[in-house]
Amino acid sequence: MIERISYIKQLEVFINKPFIKVITGIRRSGKSSVLLLLREQFLSQGVIDEQIIYINFESFSFATLQNATKLYEYVKSKIVPNKKSYLLLDEIQEVEAWEKCVNSLLIDFDVDIYLTGSNSHLLSSELATFLAGRYVEIPVFTLSFAEHLQFQAYYFPQKEQNPTTAFISYLHSGGFPVIHTADYSEESAYKIVQDIYASVILRDTVQRYKIRDIELLERIVRYTFDNIGNTFSGKNVADYFKSQQRKIDINTVYNYLHALEGAFVLYRVPRYDIKGKEILKTQEKFYLGDISLLYATMGYKNRQISGILENIVFLELKRRGYHVFVGKLDSREIDFVAEKQGRKIYIQVAYKLENEETVAREFNPLLEIKDQFPKYVVTMDDLWKEVVEGIQHWHIAEFLLNDF
After folding, report:
1. Which of 75, 161, 160, 62 has the alpha carbon at shortest distance from 114?
2. Lesser CB count within 10 Å: N end or C end of the chain?
3. Rg for the chain (alpha carbons), in Å?
4. What angle is formed at CA 401 by the lines to CA 397 and CA 403, rounded to 5 degrees?
């Protein structure tokens, strides 16, 4: 099993600390693998196997434990007296009233608890109610470009690819780990992602939020997928449906978008007024939990390349722990303003700088920002790295691999 080092490092900080560790992310992003890697780490540090209680609630082996009382009794029976137990609960949202059980286990026993879940709203609401101040969330994403290279080197050591060539493969395949463990054709890879998408829509969206009009949900998905990289509002969606002779309430649009966010299909990115230094409440952008979801549901479209590249950069920023906004500078837009621990970076993403007009569109807004934080233009131009009046121009492959 390939180590996903960044997530293990995040978890190491909290091992044996009095916090519940909650690992979240879209289905098949690798949460279970992170739990199993953690289990191996415990064993290597001298924890005996009996101290580790691992339960995957999607396995039929544990189907009888999907209510709080039965889960509590099962864990109680497995705890080794006078030793700390390590409780690894995979896809905890499958257990009815799980939060009450976890709260009791934390109070009654000497346990270090790790949970995974595929629905952010379900976890956050219950945790906020029962475990406020006693949990930390570790988001897990699909493979980064660096991890893609790691998987390629492990599973296909005979292939030698430079970063530019390897990025084309990553661009067309996305980051779900399972499709990088064998030499799948593009068609087969998208079929696998279609199945993942169907599971996410059914189990983490339709069933969790009791959505009745599945056809309408799919239409909203297609609208948002077709508009990655574009700002829009719930009213824009409703107006679009109206133009298609389909009436839809704006609140319904927002409810469905909220459900898709909860399942990590979409991420909502608010706009930030750079001059006014305030977050705006209209015309957000939405990005996908993985770009392969777009290909699997709507096919690859060259006209969307700029939005796809933005999506890749956005996910990389999230992996690195940044708070991400779309920047507004008067009437112009900065693709990303990213903040972490008091530091900012500004990023413009484009396919290629093919003419002077494109160069001006990408560079001029950054030149008007007079603070000293780093500023980047990221493209797929063959030119790798260049600095223009303090603004760094990077090829996207190099950008994704460096500590920007």
Report:
1. 75
2. N
3. 22
4. 135
pLDDT digits (tens, 9 = 90+) for 379-398: 999 865 677 788 999 999 99
Asked whether the beta carbons of 374 and 392 are under 8 A apart, the reply is: yes
Q: List, in sequence order, the alpha helices (H) in 18-144.
A: 31-44, 68-78, 98-108, 120-130
How confident is the model over 148-160, as pLDDT tens digits? 999 999 999 888 7
* Confidence label for 280 from pLDDT (cuts 50, 70 and 90): confident
Q: Which residues contact 132 (CB under 8 A, 6 or more apart)?
A: none
What whole-number distance in Å separates Cα of residue 389 and Cα of residue 386? 10
Fold of 5-139: Rossmann fold (3.40.50)
- Reduced to 3 states, what is the DSSP secondary structure of residue 287? strand
pTM reported for the whole predicted model: 0.95
In the chain, what are the domain boundaries? 5-139, 147-401
Please, what is the Cα angle at 306 between 303 and 308, to 5 degrees?
90
Residue type, 3: E
* Residue that is written with structure tokens 């015309």 in the block: 283
| Cβ contact 388:353 at 8 Å | no
User: Which of 120, 153, 157 has the alpha carbon at shortest distance from 139?
Assistant: 120
